[in-house]
Design a protein that fits this description.
This protein is of the alpha+beta class. It contains 9 helices and 16 strands. Among the domains are: 83 residues, Pseudouridine synthase (2-Layer Sandwich); 144 residues, Pseudouridine synthase.
Length: 351
């Protein structure tokens, strides 16, 4: 594998390399709806707006909301960044304590629509998210239809490797080059936001390296002695595998638990035995990065090696177009699903 070649990460389903498609040929063909883990209570000093936007990035919209409301940018909260080249629906909170509420309808444009409005007692913080519902249309699809059908059924049955998506690493994987410069020279970025971005990219890449090895050795969805298993639907409910038994196999097949990989940082390595040996071998040449992440103050954690796209459905519109829809939990990427289906060309990147 080339040092930072995302395309070289292993696929479970090699038949995916026999199918081809384009994505994002129109913004309408990549739709994302954010799902919160709770309902705002309808009262409090923070206005919460669910906004549908087209061709607009999240940071820009958050700043525009602050200007419109006459508050500082820090008064605006959101759970996560959403794709610019798409139609996305996501929540924003605006702290209006001590301020008059503006007429939000005047904020709307052709590309910005407020689809829900309420109040809550607290700011919406980053990461407070259940997941995202995706509705995608693939165009100019090529390859035998039986391959497409088989790939779709495989994803629906077994899920996919939970890779961090290519967008995590910046244009042409440039964030990883900047990480390498930082950790090798000690010259950290000046901006706090850049530091956070590069650190996230670094530990995400190390995770992807461990996951691609486990895909290649066919145990990405199987337990190893010494694995840490994550209870589905949680972020930190973990237990150590000290023996392989039927109960473990049943729970894995039912998607009740998932094997995990490392999100590097300070603290004791949690895996042991076979799992520890595999991770040590994969990350043996990345000591500088591991030390850099520890020095930056990040803590060890674990992430599921696989993700199961729920409510997964599809429809062929004709021989050249395919609609698919599914829900992914927070932190997982639609591109990880698509790479097990076909080789997809991002039309917006190409243009």
């Amino acid at each position: 594998m080339d040092k930072f070649d995302f395309l070289s990460l292993a696929r479970v389903n090699e038949a995916a390399t026999q199918c081809f498609a384009e994505i994002r040929s129109q913004a309408e063909y990549f739709q994302v709806e954010e799902i919160l883990p709770f309902e705002p209570d309808g009262e409090g000093g923070h206005v919460w707006l669910k906004i549908q936007k087209k061709g607009i990035n999240t940071d820009w919209l958050a700043n525009e909301l602050a200007k419109f409301a006459g508050v500082k940018p820090v008064a605006v909260g959101y759970a996560g960044l959403k794709d610019r080249h798409a139609i996305t629906s996501q929540w924003f909170s605006i702290n209006l304590e001590g301020f008059d509420e503006p007429n939000w309808s005047e904020f709307e444009t052709e590309d910005i629509q407020i689809i829900e409005q309420t109040r809550h007692g607290k700011k919406l913080k980053r990461g407070v998210l259940a997941g995202n519902q995706f509705k995608l249309r693939l165009t100019n699809i090529q390859g035998k239809k039986e391959y497409w059908e088989a790939n779709l059924r495989q994803i629906q049955k077994s899920g996919v490797p939970n890779y961090f998506g290519e967008q995590r690493f910046g244009h042409q994987m440039g964030n990883l080059d900047r990480v390498g410069y930082w950790f090798s020279t000690g010259k950290a970025p000046r901006k706090r936001t850049q530091k956070s971005l590069y650190l996230s990219a670094a530990r995400s890449w190390l995770f992807n390296l461990v996951l691609t090895e486990r895909v290649q050795t066919n145990n990405w969805n199987q337990p190893l002695i010494g694995d840490m298993m994550l209870l589905a639907g949680t972020k930190s409910s973990l237990f150590l595998v000290d023996k392989l038994d039927e109960e473990l196999t049943v729970r894995l097949a039912a998607m009740d638990i998932h094997p995990t990989g490392p999100m590097w940082g300070r603290g004791n390595v949690q895996v042991k035995d076979d799992s520890l040996l595999l991770e040590q071998q994969v990350l043996d040449d990345w000591d500088l990065w591991k030390q850099g992440l520890e020095k930056a103050g990040l803590s060890q954690s674990r992430r599921a090696l696989r993700v199961f796209p729920s409510d997964f459905s599809w429809q062929f519109l004709d021989n050249a177009q395919l609609d698919i829809s599914f829900f992914l939990p927070a932190g997982s990427y639609a591109t990880a699903v698509l790479r097990e289906l076909a080789i997809c060309t991002n039309v917006q990147q190409r243009n």
